Predict the 3D structure of the following.
Amino acid sequence: EVDPDWEEAQFHLANYYYKWSKAVTTGVKQSMLPHVIKHYGESLKYGSSNIFQSMPRLLTTWFELEGADTTTSQVSASQAASKPNLVQLANGHIQDLINKLPTYQWLTALSQILSR
């Protein structure tokens, strides 16, 4: 049986990664975004007490990674080349969440999904 406190641990770990990704350069930030998605998703798998923080940030982070511009001067060639791998990793996390999270959790973010 899963410890119900794991939801809080995953949520706080995702918050840490999220805040850290906001404070670093563009290339490092992009490499952190799949971790943010993974841990917010894990938080949602274990419970829904933080759903109104986790789901919007999870989706915002995913949209941010998908729409990240790799043509800026701050992004090196190797970082730009690794973006497809990061997007695939993030998409894999999202696909896993689509299959494992209950529908009601996705409905809480319906307006955010439709606006994009």
In short: The chain is about 80% helix and 0% strand. Residues 17 and 77 are 24 Å apart (CA to CA). The first helix runs from residue 6 to 23. Helices lie at 6-23, 26-46, 51-66, 77-100, 103-107, 110-115.
